[in-house]
């Protein structure tokens, strides 16, 4: 494709996206295709001859859009949001157009240095400790996901704990232990498996009524394990759990980690970016104890996936775990020690120029724009929680300090509450106006309403609330009618049984 | 940013990229900034108020471009290429604009199903075995890099070897062994470290004169290790090593792996995609023995980073190692087992919709376009090798079946050949017209000329050859002059010493 063809088709694609964003509210949020539908609409083999761009663009509407669940839809309240924005998409477009590979400083110095600078900016914006700045012993780096960040944090912790012995000798699965709560994200357990420890190394610490980790239980668990000869490697504390945005108390946990030499990793994947608003930083009090910290700009900070912001207080532990320098990667700048090579801060070797999209987002919105974005969603969620609190049809089942509200519908006596709740969820999602997901709190399913799509306004939150209450009323009535019908049927059955002697019973 | 603002600024960015591609040949290939230059041109803190898009675009020229090493430059012959193309950039742009997260089938069915289909297409295009097709026990998936692919292959192998015990109990670093050659990419060793085995588990098998793994040495090493109680987990065979594109003999290695129950992983990161041209498939004879296989569309198949094509013959081993299903990810489609959830095929949870760019590339170029692309680079490299073979100033030091040629300059007697070779490299790279990197073959530095940037034509290969020979002549003359000068100085010193009695020697 020549530059001039790219210019023409590029304009077409930009227009297609602008049109998509304009009409996004007209799609059902959750894709309504069945398994196999999308594949069935595709040819069995690749084309032998190249096709025109018109045909490709047309298939976006014919094949792709019906199979898309619209994460940027204002009615998307599922999971956590996956924000994107115009400046993010355009920063990413520049990155794709440059097509550079930032594995080493020398392979594109701007990719490394812009990332260092933007990560320092973001540490400032979030009020994170000095130890995370590139000017000290630590530093920030963009990772592919908080799953990846949790893994590299664990690898750094293993390296530090073993005094570097893991590099040659590997891990000691029978001795190493890692501490989480029942609410910690599953990616931490996955990291433990990937790192070769196995899930037996995971210690699940009790949570309090607010679903935050109980520091007393953590301390007791650590004491017991140390007494038994285990070697605590890492404690994962979460700020804003995936299930309910519960918050583990960092200050108390930090002290305990220090006592035992355990690495404190803070997984603030969703909630961390809320700290752009100073009044929300109290949730993270004690963050200065953290050895590492992760939060996703691609969840709630207007930056497209992937853009995980990861900081470490001692970068030597991280690069000690991950650096390898074969001859074909040697270069004068690296040999002189004058530069940072981010390939040694992550799992893969290659790197995209992801700092560009963050730079575009921060500059376009400014600090005040990012604060306004976060605050508006928090305010909407608090309104929703207020409506639910005041309504006898729903319980708000967990603290909701940010923009996620977890609701448990109340059902009439005799109704299977779990089935009814999941039926309500499916009904809403089938309707197409909104999309919610569920979680389990104290063994019961609850509905998660995550306010966070950039296009979501008060009107959409009002609408999801109306759909929830209407759906509840309709289902409650339906279940009640069913229950009444069943009761009537049973009564009729009993009546018939009393009138008619059983045929096989001797008179 | 509203859709209409996005439309306007999107056109501006598309134009900026089209202009960049048009003028790319005017930039020095390797960035000429010094460490710290880029950061020094950036503000110390993020802006409080949002900025206009003009200011951001202007800084691309002011701040970013001087700090970029231009991987898409026709004079880029370094490392391996990192191809991109118009259709790839536009496919990625659509992906960014949709902003969907394809971790599970339900979160955007098209993201999963298009990926399955395109990976099946590509398995066909590359002539890969039936076992890798999604219709059988295996399947293909897009990974972030071949580093990531090497890691997940190892995790799957560990899972299979242990009968699934690694999930709970972790690895056995003191027993597990992994086989590579001295030419295997460093990411395999990195994977071994990440997976908790430590580098002591790595067995480095001898290579033959062509730098391919010696199967006899592999067999002997395996026998010895098994006899000593080790448990061979995985053999990594490379098709197209990073250093010289050497090829390990897959057929012989496959038989040996089968005998010992070791997982055969084929790392064809660079060379694998060459198999779109059937006449180049012989390099991979025996690929049907592979348990897993990786090749990078983002190196040499016109698709921007990242787009690693990874196939596995037994997907259950992979998902057995990597799947975790917390409540908040449960959904009807997953529970019914009717769909594939690609989050369980990779390290991170989240996924971009990377199949779009592959789909755009394959459709725009067609199979014949991809073949022509590969063949043209192979032909150019063979021409270059021919010129070097016929020239007494350079040796071609390794087989060059594809598009990489490794050259060792010959230097006059008395010249430090290693210093001279590296000086020639720096001289060429400082010149800015071309960019090369080096490697070490049999302990000597050699220059790698990797023909593979999409814009590279015969004219650019002629030019790099002219620069190499001119640079060689200039340096050889310079070194000879230096040597003559030194010899003259030594002679003069000797003459002076003979004429003048030493002052401190008694007469």
TrEMBL record, chains A, B:
<dbReference type="GO" id="GO:0030170">
    <property type="term" value="F:pyridoxal phosphate binding"/>
</dbReference>
<keyword id="KW-0210">Decarboxylase</keyword>
<dbReference type="InterPro" id="IPR015422">
    <property type="entry name" value="PyrdxlP-dep_Trfase_small"/>
</dbReference>
<dbReference type="GO" id="GO:0006520">
    <property type="term" value="P:amino acid metabolic process"/>
</dbReference>
<dbReference type="InterPro" id="IPR015421">
    <property type="entry name" value="PyrdxlP-dep_Trfase_major"/>
</dbReference>
<feature type="modified residue" description="N6-(pyridoxal phosphate)lysine">
    <location>
        <position position="299"/>
    </location>
</feature>
<protein>
    <submittedName>
        <fullName>Aromatic-L-amino-acid decarboxylase</fullName>
    </submittedName>
</protein>
<keyword id="KW-0456">Lyase</keyword>
<dbReference type="GO" id="GO:0019752">
    <property type="term" value="P:carboxylic acid metabolic process"/>
</dbReference>
<keyword id="KW-0663">Pyridoxal phosphate</keyword>
<dbReference type="GO" id="GO:0004058">
    <property type="term" value="F:aromatic-L-amino-acid decarboxylase activity"/>
</dbReference>
<comment type="similarity">
    <text>Belongs to the group II decarboxylase family.</text>
</comment>
<dbReference type="InterPro" id="IPR010977">
    <property type="entry name" value="Aromatic_deC"/>
</dbReference>
<dbReference type="InterPro" id="IPR002129">
    <property type="entry name" value="PyrdxlP-dep_de-COase"/>
</dbReference>
<dbReference type="InterPro" id="IPR015424">
    <property type="entry name" value="PyrdxlP-dep_Trfase"/>
</dbReference>
<dbReference type="Pfam" id="PF00282">
    <property type="entry name" value="Pyridoxal_deC"/>
</dbReference>
<dbReference type="GO" id="GO:0005737">
    <property type="term" value="C:cytoplasm"/>
</dbReference>
């Amino acid at each position: 494709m020549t530059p001039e063809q790219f210019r023409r088709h590029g304009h077409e694609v930009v227009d297609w996206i602008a049109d998509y964003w304009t009409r996004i509210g007209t799609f059902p949020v959750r894709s309504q295709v069945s398994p196999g539908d999308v594949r069935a609409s595709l040819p069995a083999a690749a084309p032998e001859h190249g096709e025109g761009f018109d045909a490709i663009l047309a298939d976006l509407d014919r094949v792709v859009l019906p199979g898309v669940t619209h994460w940027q839809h204002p009615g998307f309240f599922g999971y956590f949001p996956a924000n994107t924005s115009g400046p993010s998409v355009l920063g990413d477009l520049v990155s794709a157009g440059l097509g550079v590979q930032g594995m080493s400083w020398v392979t594109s110095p701007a990719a490394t240095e812009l990332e260092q600078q933007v990560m320092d900016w973001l540490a400032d914006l979030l009020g994170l400790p000095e130890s995370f700045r590139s000017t000290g012993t630590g530093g920030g780096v963009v990772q592919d996901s908080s799953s990846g960040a949790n893994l590299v944090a664990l690898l750094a912790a293993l390296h530090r704990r073993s005094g570097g012995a893991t590099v040659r000798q590997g891990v000691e699965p029978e001795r190493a232990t890692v501490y989480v709560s029942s609410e910690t994200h599953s990616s931490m357990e996955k990291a433990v498996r990937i790192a070769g420890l196995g899930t037996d190394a995971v210690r699940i610490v009790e949570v309090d009524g607010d679903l935050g980790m109980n520091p007393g239980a953590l301390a007791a668990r650590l004491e017991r394990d140390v007494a038994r000869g285990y070697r605590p490697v890492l404690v994962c504390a979460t700020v804003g759990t995936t299930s309910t945005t519960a918050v583990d108390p960092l200050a108390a946990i930090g002290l305990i980690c220090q006592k035992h030499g355990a690495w404190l990793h803070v997984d603030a994947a969703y909630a961390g970016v809320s700290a752009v608003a100073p009044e929300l930083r109290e949730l993270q009090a004690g963050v200065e104890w953290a050895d590492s910290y992760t939060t996703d700009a691609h969840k709630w900070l207007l930056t497209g996936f992937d853009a995980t912001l990861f900081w470490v207080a001692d970068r030597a532990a991280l690069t000690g775990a991950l650096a390898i320098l074969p001859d074909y990667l040697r270069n004068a700048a690296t040999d002189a020690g004058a530069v940072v090579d981010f390939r040694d801060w992550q799992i893969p070797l290659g790197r995209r120029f992801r700092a560009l999209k963050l730079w575009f987002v921060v500059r376009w919105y400014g600090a005040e724009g990012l604060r306004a974005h976060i605050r508006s969603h928090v305010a909407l969620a608090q309104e929703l929680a207020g409506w639910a609190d005041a309504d006898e049809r729903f319980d708000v089942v967990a603290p909701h300090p940010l923009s996620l509200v977890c609701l448990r519908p109340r059902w009439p006596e005799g109704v299977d509450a779990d089935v009814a709740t999941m039926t309500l969820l499916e009904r809403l999602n089938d309707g197409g106006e909104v999309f919610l997901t569920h979680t389990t709190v104290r063994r019961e399913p609850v509905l998660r309403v995550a306010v966070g799509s950039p296009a979501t306004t008060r009107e959409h939150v009002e609408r999801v609330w109306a759909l929830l209450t209407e759906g509840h009323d309709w289902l409650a009535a339906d279940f009640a009618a069913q229950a009444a019908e069943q009761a009537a049927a049973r009564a009729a059955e009993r009546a018939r049984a009393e009138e008619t002697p059983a045929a096989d019973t001797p008179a």
